[in-house]
UniProtKB/TrEMBL annotation:
Protein name: L-asparaginase
Pfam families in the cross-refs: Asparaginase, Asparaginase_C
Top-level taxonomic group: Bacteria
Species assigned in the record: Allorhizobium borbori
Domain Asparaginase/glutaminase C-terminal: 218-333
Domain L-asparaginase N-terminal: 9-188
The UniProt record lists the keyword Hydrolase: yes
Family: Belongs to the asparaginase 1 family.
Length: 342
């Protein structure tokens, strides 16, 4: 599906990241006025682009320092601009871009306009940067009226935000969706969308579910050969409202001479929601398919399906900030809110 984009106005919001950095004697540092730098770089291409306005957060966010509070601030900024624009481009650091995209997809639902995150592996000030090309692609995608969800545009591909994960620290093709096809791509400079994959908007106004943000509510624990049972105690001592277990294969875990079962029982007693997901890049979980996974189902662990770690974490953060009841968190987590799971 190819659609024209005349007279559509896009808000470009720069939050920070490699794309907006320049070389200094002390290493890369943010431009003092990156919106002006970007506007100048886009000027020769303006005739082929939708209309756009560029603004920036007063203090750039180093994406490796991003917290749920930053997700909320970004969601609030988008909400406040919502009525004035036809689409949105968010410039973001790549390290936690997939976390932010997933979080936004849960806070901003049933959308009538697109939100497209992008950034760069190579700063725009450096020769060979992918930054300007990514911004141009994102502008084209953000001007598509049939696109009504949170996405990531990178290296010519459009990915559902809550299905994407960062797969390379070096290649310009930095993101991929393990269990979902791209929503679109740039073909000969033109955005082409896969209409059958796009979210269909529900009737009514967009939902801006902007609950207060909090950190420390979700913990994760990755099984490794020879895991020390003391890791279970440390996880419980953090007193999270939810725990993500990163399991082997399709949802298998070692018994560790009974320590795993004891840990799961304690988590249940303390009202902690426990989610199981696979460490494997593709395929998702099916706890109980093997005897080694039945331990999870026996203790009421929730199947994370084919959700990415980023989407699982962001969704649990969103839910745990609003509810301390493990059963309510589990029930809400299992529902498909914004195309995050099959």
């Amino acid at each position: 599906m190819i659609l024209s984009e005349p007279h559509r106005r896009i808000a470009v919001l720069h939050t920070g990241g490699t794309i907006g950095m320049r070389r200094t004697p002390r290493g890369f540092a943010p431009y003092e006025d990156f919106p002006a730098v970007l506007a100048k770089a886009l000027e020769p291409l303006a005739a082929g682009l939708p209309l756009f306005d560029i603004s920036a957060f007063a203090t750039p966010i180093d994406s490796s320092e991003a917290t749920p509070a930053d997700w909320l601030a970004l969601a609030v900024a988008l909400r406040d601009l919502w009525a004035d624009y036809d689409g949105f481009v968010v410039l973001h650091g790549t390290d936690t871009m997939a976390f932010s995209a997933a979080a936004l997809s849960f806070m901003l639902r049933d959308l009538d306009k697109p939100v497209v995150l992008t950034g760069a592996q190579i700063a725009m000030a450096v020769e060979g940067s992918d930054g300007l090309g990514n911004v141009v692609s994102a502008l084209h995608f953000a001007a598509q009226p049939v696109l009504r969800e949170v996405c990531i545009a990178f290296d010519g591909l459009l990915l559902r935000g809550n299905r994407a994960t960062k797969v390379s620290t070096r290649r310009v093709a930095a993101f991929a969706c393990p269990d979902f096809e791209p929503l679109g791509r740039i073909v000969d400079g033109v955005p082409v969308l896969e209409a059958g994959l796009l979210l269909q908007r529900a009737a009514g106004a967009p939902v801006f579910d902007l609950a207060p943000a909090a950190s420390g509510l979700v913990a994760s624990l990755r099984f490794v050969p020879g895991l020390a049972p003391a890791a279970f105690d440390a996880c419980l001592e953090a007193a999270p409202r939810a725990i993500i277990l990163e399991c082997y294969g399709s949802g298998n875990v070692p018994s560790l001479n009974g320590a795993t079962g004891a840990f799961l029982a304690k988590a249940r007693e303390r009202g902690i929601a426990v989610i199981a997901r696979t460490q494997v890049f593709h395929g998702g979980t099916s706890p109980g398919a093997y005897a080694a996974g039945s331990l999870l189902t026996d203790h009421g662990v929730i199947d994370g399906g084919d959700m990415t770690f980023e989407a699982s974490y962001a969704k649990l953060c969103h839910l745990a900030a609003q509810n301390s009841d493990a059963r309510a968190i589990a029930a809400a987590f299992a529902r498909n809110w914004a195309g995050e799971r099959s």
